[in-house]
Amino acid sequence: MKRSVLFLSIFVFAAFIFAACNKTTNPTDTTDDNVQSTEDNALVDGEFSSIFSYADAQGNISYSQAQKQSGNEIQSPTTKADLLPSCATVNVDTVNKIMTIDFGSTNCLCRDGNYRRGVVTATLTGKWKSVGAKLVITLANYYVNDNLVQGKKTITISSSTEWQVKVENASVTTATGVVSWNANRQFEKIAGANTPNIAIDDVYLITGTCTGVNRKGVNFTVVTSTPLKKDMSCKFKDFVSGILTIVNLDKGVSLSIDYNATGNEACDKLAKVTIGTKTYTIHLR
To answer: How many CB atoms lie within 10 A of CB 108?
Structure first.
């Protein structure tokens, strides 16, 4: 899984634009707190998904080059992953098996239309992509669209196409508050396994659970009702389909977000949020 080993992308830091499906009702009147959890979960979930993809894609290239040139497990790459922008640099410590992806100290425009700066560090334990191997990803001064992103992501290899992913103490600091988030996820690569050095043909299915606190201080839980589908050929949307059920624990309200708003897995920025009998179309970062 090229991007499997680490990265991951709904880094939707822009505010959602809400429009009712049947009328132009703005849900921020009575459902604002409920929808906020949906927005904030998408924000953190998307970026950590992108981080996983970056690390996995670059790790595949480093490993492939090492096998061809030196027989080592990883090697400093002569080629950069196709997901990474020209303003990002990659370095590999072949002795300690540490890879760093540096987006620089000023905003770097990425393939998905988001601006990033700071450093992503991935440390490998075991042999790349072997069962039981672990990749631990940490962030340093890492910002997306000027929002500070923090947290630790651990990827454990279950098979050649499956990973267990744990995100701990994640947070996104925005101008209107801080979102905190933790997750236990399962990633499965269903396309692209035969082309490890090409990331944009990868497709993943993602399941699992998450917990968080939205920027208004409301606790929420997230369960995957239908697996999220991450299609790397779609650069503007983290997930082209999949349904999450979100429960605001402090409010006792359950809602769902469907990333396949149009029904055809379109590569757009739309999703549907359903609360009770009401459905709203939202615009993702």
So the answer is: 20
What are 144's two structure tokens? 């997306």
Total-model pTM: 0.82
Give the number of other CB atoms < 10 A from CB of residue 225: 14
pLDDT of residue 118: 98
d(CA 280, CA 285): 16
| Dihedral pair phi/psi, residue 32, rounded to 5° | -55, -50
Structure tokens given for 40: 């904030």
In angstroms, rounded to a whole number, what is the distance separating the alpha carbons of residues 59 and 125? 13
At residue 56, the 3 state secondary structure works out as helix
Residue 83 tokens read as 């997901």
Amino acid at position 35, single letter:
V
Q: Can you tell me the distance from the alpha carbon of 4 to that of 51, in angstroms, rounded to the nearest whole number?
A: 9
Instruction: Tell how far CA 143 is from the center of its chain.
Output: 14
Per-residue model confidence (pLDDT) at position 65: 53
Asked if residue 275 lies in contact with residue 252, where contact means CB atoms within 8 angstroms, the answer is: no
Domain boundaries, the chain: 18-283
pLDDT, averaged in runs of 10, over the chain (285 residues): 37 31 37 80 91 86 57 57 91 89 97 95 89 95 98 94 95 97 95 83 94 95 95 88 93 90 91 89 79
